[in-house]
Amino acid sequence: MSSNGKLIQFLQHELAISSAEIDVLLRHPEHAHAPLPIILWQYGLITLQQLAQIFDWLEAQV
C-alpha cells in the first residue's frame, strides 16, 4: 500500500474522516500539491489537535 493510501486509511479509521470527504478534497486540482492534512484542517474537517495527531503518525511512519 502506498504511503498516501496508509494515510487515508489512518484518517478513516482513527479520525473517522469519511471517504467521501477525502474524495472531494482530492478532486480539486488546486490542492494537488498541498499536503492532505493541511487541506483537511483548512476546510474545518479536523481540529488542530487532530492535525497534530496526524503529524505524529506521519513522523512515526518514517
UniProtKB/TrEMBL annotation:
<dbReference type="InterPro" id="IPR021336">
    <property type="entry name" value="DUF2949"/>
</dbReference>
<dbReference type="Pfam" id="PF11165">
    <property type="entry name" value="DUF2949"/>
</dbReference>
<protein>
    <submittedName>
        <fullName>DUF2949 domain-containing protein</fullName>
    </submittedName>
</protein>
